[in-house]
């Protein structure tokens, strides 16, 4: 995975947080990350709460093999 950009955006339609899997309504501020994967380009959104949790718990949540986070990692680890 290669990260292209990261930006805080006001979403224009409902989006799911990549880390906690909660749905957020149109108009919410989320962090949008655009990445290049083996199969193409993808976009993920994370909520402000999960952004803090991911930064504070990086060692526990980051996959050591591919240096990325798994979808739903905050929810699965109940952080």
Describe the structure.
The protein has 79 residues and is α+β, with helices and mostly antiparallel strands. The protein has a single domain (2-76), classed as first zn-finger domain of poly(adp-ribose) polymerase-1 (2-Layer Sandwich). The chain has three helices and five strands, in the order E-E-E-E-E-H-H-H. It has helices at 48-56, 58-61, 73-76; strands at residues 2-10, 15-16, 23-24, 29-37, 40-46. It has a three-stranded antiparallel β-sheet. A two-stranded antiparallel ribbon has the order 2-3. The radius of gyration is 12 Å and the shape is globular. It starts with a strand and ends with a helix. The model has no long low-confidence stretch (mean pLDDT 92).
Order of strands, main sheet, comes to 1-4-5
The overall number of domains is 1
What portion of residues belong to β-strands?
35-45%
Pick out the low-confidence regions: none
Rg result: 12 Å
- Average the pLDDT over all residues and give the rounded result: 92
* Sheet having the most strands: 3 strands, antiparallel
Morphology: globular
- Indicate the CATH architecture: 2-Layer Sandwich
Ends: how far apart? 24 Å
Secondary structure: helix percent: 10-25%
């Amino acid at each position: 995975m290669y990260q292209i950009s990261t930006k805080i955006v006001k979403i224009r339609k409902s989006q799911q947080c990549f880390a906690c899997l909660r749905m957020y309504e149109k108009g919410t501020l989320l962090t949008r990350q655009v990445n290049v994967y083996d199969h193409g380009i993808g976009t993920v959104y994370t909520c402000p709460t999960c952004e803090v949790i991911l930064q504070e718990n990086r060692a526990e949540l980051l996959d050591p093999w591919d240096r990325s986070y798994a979808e739903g990692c905050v929810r699965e680890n109940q952080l």
